[in-house]
Structure prediction request, 343 residues.
Amino acid sequence: MNGPLHLPPTGTAIQYEIVNTFWEVPVKTANLEKGYFSLNPYFMYYANQCRLAVNDEGGHILARTHRDICDIVQYIRVDLTREEIKRHLGKKLPDPKPANHNELLDSSIDLAVRLLVMMEVGELQYGFISRNRLDWPEGSLRDFLRDYFKKTTSGDYVRLERIFNARNLRRIAGIDIEWTSNIADHLLLIDGDTRVAIFHHAEFLKHQMESKTPLLPNGLAKETLMTIALLFPQSDISIKKWYCKIRRSYNLDQKAIQCGHLKADERRIENFQFWRERLTVLKQIFDEAEPKGISQWWHDRRKRVQWYTFWIAVVLLLLTVFFGFIQIIEGALQVYKAFHPLA
Prediction:
């Protein structure tokens, strides 16, 4: 735990301690060693966030070790306000205080928050600007998260059929997936509604549900897992094969395809309160999309009569071309025979 932040927290012992400190989840070391506990995608995110934070020789952050981050997390978990946490950390500042002492404190707190709840809070001196970069200016983090994730209890009736899944977003509607490690970006449509961000860290979400004192609003982790089960139904073999094929390329959480599947009554839009608006918009874009190519026409079975009509027309066209080609060949042979009767 006393290792420097620029080195990733490798080894089961240090990962075990981080998990217990962050989320108070009783994970057995034996399960870590046997691979039952798979947070590899999370710890790659952890390592990347730490690397970006300590860039420029750590001149913008006070924290130096993984232990320093865990200490800040403990302050956050007991619901200290941001100013109270800064006062505790301020005792570690050298004397005299550096000119950028506020930046050093804020950067340390923001890094701990990003690692704790996987949300882009605060500014990074080096790194891409998130679409949903948030500022936690005051109060406790728990109150801040509760205010940010508002529940929605009203809206239009929307049918979430089985055909509405992650693979069909691309195959039918032409909507690409942008995998995200920022839960605030989940189900957000971007780039002119041509891409959708999907938070894939299912193992992280499961630990939020198991946490004794979760920081995320009550029900958020469970509902997010429900959206993952909706988009990646475990019972669909074709989706499972597709996900497993792309998982390594994007370092995706293998547990995202192990979240079960939603029954018909569970796929009702009223079961979703945190993500209802984004799900409704995504489903609307999906429903309104018209096939633009042969591949999309083949996979789009939403309108059965239109699908059969299109492919019958295609078959008739191909048969017409085929028999027309045969007639051309027969005509050419007849002309040849007429000029070469002895051939």
Q: What stands out?
A: The mean pLDDT is 86.
